[in-house]
Amino acid sequence: MRRVYFDHNATTPVLPAAAASARDFLDGLFGNPSSLHWAGRAVRPYVDEARSQVARLIGANPSEIVFTSGATEADNQAIKGAAYALAGKGNHLVTTRVEHPAVLSTFAYLEGKGYRVTYLGVDGNGLVDPDEVRRAIRKETILVSVIHANNETGTVQPVKEIGAIARSAGVLFHSDMVQDLGKISVDVDDLCVDLAAFSGHKVYAPKGVGALYVREGIEIDNLMHGGHQEMGRRAGTENMVGIVAFGRACVAALDDMEEEASKAEFLRKRLLEGIMALVPDVRLNGDPARRLPNTLNLSFQYVEAESLLIALDLAGIAVSAGSACSSGSTEPSHVLLAMGIDPLVCQGAIRISLGRENNEEDVEYALEAIPRAVGRLRDMSPLFRRP
Ligand code: PLP
C-alpha cells in the first residue's frame, strides 16, 4: 500500500544530510564540549557552527541563540524567565487564545502563581487584531506573547505590527515561531521579536533539540540550573547529536526555502481545489491568504475527525485531527473554537501538512482516498442526508 505522510506540522523525517552530520557524534566524537582537553576541543567548534547556522536562518546573532531540548522548553524559559525576571516591574502578561499548549499551559501555571493574564481572542480567520494588543497593555504589563504561524490552521499572525506595539510600550515580546522554520522567512529583527522559540524536529532534525532566541541585552531567568553551558543560560551537557543535526537542517531550510515553499503551495492549492470540487460541505479553516504554504485545515461536516483519520490511516495516509499535535486528544480544537467555529464543525476538522517528500502523486492519491473515506463515513452518519 502507498504511504503518504501529510503530518509535517507534528514532526518531520530527519533529513539525510542532518543525520549524516550528526553520525560522528554517535560514533567517535564523544567529547564534552566544556572540556578543555583534546576530546572536548574536538567537538566545541561544532556547537559554535550549529549556533551560527540556526542564527543565520532567523536573522539573529549566534550569541542570541540558546540550545534547548525543544520548543516546549524554549517557550517555558522565555515566558517564565521573563515573568520571574520582571516580577518587580509588574505581574500582567498578554497572550492569545490560539497558542500552542506549550505557551497556554505556561501562562496557566503563572496564573496559579499570582500573575494576571489577558487572553486575546481572534477573528473568524484566526487573526489577532494588533489594536487589541495595544488596548490590553497596561502599566503592569511585562510580556506579550503571540504565536507567529499557527500549528493547526497555518494562519500567520501580524507579528511585526504586534512586536512594534509591544516595543513602543516598553514591553517584552515573545513569539512561538516553531512552525515558521523552513516554510516562511523569519527575521527576528524585522519582526521586533525579543524572545522566540524554535524546534528541531519540525525542520527535519531529530526530536529533543530546539532553540530559544534571546535578543542581545535582554535578561531573563534560567529554567535549568547547574553548569555554565550555553553561555550560562541553559545548564546541562549539550545534546551534540541534536544540535549538530539542527544546525545542518537549518542550512538546508535556508537553501531550499523558496523552492520548497512554492512546491508546498502548489500541492496545497491542488489538494484544496480537488477536495472542494469532489466533496460537499467542507469548510477551509484559517485565513485564506495569510497562511503557511504547507498547511490545510478542513472541516468535513457530518464526519468525526478521528474516524476520518483512522479511515485515511487504513489507506496509508497520515494526517492529524483536531489539536492532536502531541496528546492524541479528541477534544475539539481550542484554536478552532476561538475562531468561533461551531463545536460540531470543529469535531470534523483535520489538518493536512505537507513537506519535502510530498509530490503530485501523493496529492492525487489523497484526492481519491479522502472523498471515498468521507463518503463512507457520511453514509453511516445519522446527521447526513444525501441531496
Ligand atoms: N509550539 C508549536 C507551535 C508547536 O507546533 C510545537 C510542536 O508540537 C511546540 C511548540 C512544541 O515543540 P517541541 O515538540 O519541540 O517541544
What can you see in these coordinates?
The chain has 387 residues and is α/β, with parallel strands linked by helices. 40% of the residues lie in helices and 14% in strands. The strands form 3 sheets. A 7-stranded mixed β-sheet has the order 2-8-7-6-5-3-4, with helices on both faces. Strands 9-10-13-12 form a 4-stranded antiparallel β-sheet, with helices on one face. Helix 8 (240-278) packs across helix 12. The structure holds pyridoxal-5'-phosphate. Pyridoxal-5'-phosphate is lined by residues 70-72, 75, 100, 102, 147, 151, 176, 178-179, 199, 210, 325-326. Pyridoxal-5'-phosphate binds at residues 70-72, 75, 100, 102, 147, 151, 176, 178-179, 199, 210, 325-326.
How would you concisely characterize the structure shown here?
With 387 residues, this protein is an alpha/beta fold. The chain is built from twelve helices and 13 strands. The protein has helices spanning 16-23, 38-58, 71-85, 101-112, 130-136, 159-168, 229-232, 240-278, 305-314, 334-338, 343-346, 360-380; strands at 4-5, 65-68, 92-96, 116-120, 141-145, 172-176, 195-199, 210-214, 282-284, 295-300, 317-318, 320-321, 349-353.
Q: The biggest beta sheet, please?
A: 7 strands, mixed
Number of strands: 13
What is the strand content?
A: 5-15%
* Gross morphology: globular
Q: Could you report the average pLDDT, rounded to the nearest whole number? A: 96
Q: H/E element string?
A: EHHEHEHEHEHEEEHHEEHEEHHEH
Q: State the end-to-end CA separation.
A: 33 Å
Task: Tell me the strand order in the biggest sheet.
Answer: 2-8-7-6-5-3-4
Helix content: 40-55%
Spell out which ligands are present. pyridoxal-5'-phosphate
The assigned structural class equals alpha/beta
Measured on Cα atoms, how large is the radius of gyration? Answer: 21 Å
* Low-confidence runs of at least 5 consecutive residues: none
Counting DSSP H or I runs of 4 or more residues, the number of helices is 12
